[in-house]
């Protein structure tokens, strides 16, 4: 196969396969959000694990390997710069458009305050302090007829009612959960936009690497390496876009198309500027890769995972949801790590 034919094959193969796997989640997300909400949440957490491994295990070592020796000490700094760029943009958007992105926080806060006042009126009690040598004890003084149900911050405590002869001294008066329960702002475009930009930059640079190859065998070898993880990442991007209740099918299609064209444009660029000075590539490639990796990490740990954890920590009739999400994140991380290590071994 000629070199040009191999690169054209790579463009068509990466473009079409990326679009196919990216659009696939949209076909079942419409009904799946109501019928299999935990399954969809697990897919999103799986995608979070994949994206985390892509950022930390796949991209970060590539940056350190590609950057010149005299600049290797700045690898992590470039990575963190990408993280903070998106962080700053996110906070600036919320500062100027915070009212538009309220996402019901004030409503939830008012409901919480009303519930607290009601519970205070219905189940008010005080504490007597007992002090001894080296000890301090708080003991409730009043026990009323209580139909109070433990608020869903800790599902391990059952409801207390007047019918089961259970007194307040059998349970602590309050329990605190280890995570917040407010979901990140669904209306904010920063999460999906940042994710799309980071993955597109990464795809563009990978396509550029394919386009700069000088033999058809190298092109096909690199094509297999790129496709093996790009398809997994593309599916995770599709799941994330499809999970956005405010998103439309047209927006989903446009986003996946942009992602699919990233590698295609990269290959075309590599074919067109194959004579680009090497010293420029040695600096530009790792810097762009580092910024994209930092962006990817921010979206994963500040948008995707906190949202899913908060969403399911509110629904304590499914106590197993948190463990399912944890397993999904771990599986996604392990799969992407294994793919990366195998590709590195074959490359070496």
TrEMBL record:
Presence of the UniProt keyword Membrane in the record: yes
Molecular functions (GO terms): zinc ion transmembrane transporter activity
Membrane topology according to the record: Multi-pass membrane protein
Signal peptide coordinates: none
GO CC aspect terms: plasma membrane
Transmembrane parts of this sequence: 12-30, 36-57, 193-213, 219-241, 253-274, 280-299, 320-343
Keywords (A to Z) from UniProt: Membrane, Transmembrane, Transmembrane helix
Transmembrane as UniProt keyword: yes
Location in the cell: Membrane
Highest taxon of source: Eukaryota
Record protein name field: Zinc transporter ZIP3
